[in-house]
Design goal:
Helix content is 36%, strand content 13%. The protein is built from six helices and seven strands. Bound molecules: zinc ion (ZN). Zinc ion binds next to loops.
């Protein structure tokens, strides 16, 4: 069913997503992989700022939703697919944050205009092709776009980020939004100079040790 610490982490990520203004209205959702191989996810229509442990929905390891719970986010399949395909995913944040969504509506990826693009795992943050929200097709397109990345944009929709837990996934989603904003503004007056493939290779090699104390 998910432990109290898993619930607490997920609620903290939902509150953090709201306070960072990444989830206007009732948009945006987040999940945590539970130790039994299932997941907890926010309920459909839930305003992230008001999330509480009692309102989270548990989905069992075989993808079943036990009765007596709220309905899960309509986008739960997308989270489920990512946990199936990416064994290092422990938490996911999906949101319609402003600048990521602006670029997604233009079906643009975020190229290597800033070295921090490497935070998503490569030399760009891709944009998954469009499919209607909540569909199996969208789940598969998004999971595929994340083949060698931890974050991507979703065409005409928003962004999604995963990490080892929901708090780290939220931190990544915040970085993606900041990069999207910087890229958007740098496009306004002629466009940025992009880093070369070699320059990004060097960043990615160095990035493997980023944030480690030893
Ligand atoms: Zn969405």
């Amino acid at each position: 069913m998910g432990s109290s610490s898993e619930s607490a982490q997920l609620v903290a990520a939902l509150h953090g997503m709201s306070s960072a203004q990444l989830s206007p209205g009732a948009s945006g959702n987040a999940s945590v992989k539970t130790s039994d191989g299932g997941m907890l996810i926010s309920a459909t229509g839930q305003v992230a700022a008001n999330a509480s442990p009692a309102e989270l929905v548990y989905i069992s390891p075989d993808g079943q939703i036990a009765g007596g719970q709220l309905k899960p986010s309509s986008e739960w399949h997308m989270h489920w697919q990512i946990y199936q395909d990416h064994q290092n995913a422990g938490g996911i944040v999906h949101c319609h944050s402003r600048f990521a969504t602006v670029l997604a509506c233009q079906r643009r990826e975020i190229p290597a205009f800033h070295y921090m693009v490497a935070i998503a795992g490569g030399n760009s943050i891709p944009c998954a092709p469009y499919a209607i929200y909540g569909s199996k097709e969208l789940s598969e397109l998004v999971s595929l776009a994340l083949s060698d990345r931890k974050a991507c944009l979703l065409a005409n929709h928003g962004q999604i980020a995963y990490s080892s837990d929901p708090i780290r996934a939220l931190a990544l989603a915040k970085e993606v939004e900041e990069l999207a904003a910087n890229y958007y503004f740098s496009l306004q007056n002629g466009g940025p100079s992009l880093l070369s493939e070699q320059e990004m290779c060097d960043v990615l090699a160095q990035y493997a040790n980023y944030g480690r104390q030893t």
